[in-house]
């Protein structure tokens, strides 16, 4: 006859460590999404940096001298001149950021929903609680991810320095972390955190409210149960909608 300890040991990991499982699931989903969309982010950043560098050098003649014009031509130019894999140059800090941010906000939101706010008698999560919980989860997730967000932006700015002919400041992601920490201390890793969490609060007010609405709809209108699979499907549906916009 099995004891409660044996049953707990043999139960799935998602049941034994639900918060850790949701963190990992959210992090994995964010990593896949980041890998799929990073070339678009890189192309957008390259266009922005190119325009700023050209304006600084040439002023009004910058438009005529720009080597890339448009998203498609910029992406094709990167592939032809630098190689196909360069479309994912700098993806490492972006992945770090999304793992911490997505995992942190989802775990926080689930904790607020289950422990702090609680559901109504019909097991429904009221809209006002979703709004408040989403904003608070966004604040926590972004605050935790601010160091990785800072490194991501700093690494992207290296492209501007390269176009301007200036020496690069960082040799890689870990060197960037170490240099920022050495120059600014622990507080330096959280530079710019106030506007970042304000934006994250507004973004997650919509994202997580929609996520909870979609999940509740799936549980009520499909054979799916309120488990980690349904959570992942709801997250992917929201991510697919955002990617199509």
From TrEMBL:
Ranges that cross the membrane: none
Keywords, ordered alphabetically: Membrane, Mitochondrion, Mitochondrion inner membrane, Repeat, Transmembrane, Transmembrane helix, Transport
UniProt-listed InterPro entries: MCP_dom_sf, MCP_transmembrane, Mito_Metabolite_Transporter
Membrane topology: Multi-pass membrane protein
Record's GO cellular component terms: mitochondrial inner membrane
One Pfam family it belongs to: Mito_carr
Subcellular location: Mitochondrion inner membrane
Similarity remark: Belongs to the mitochondrial carrier (TC 2.A.29) family.
Full protein name: Solute carrier family 25 member 27
Protein's organism: Phocoena sinus (Vaquita)
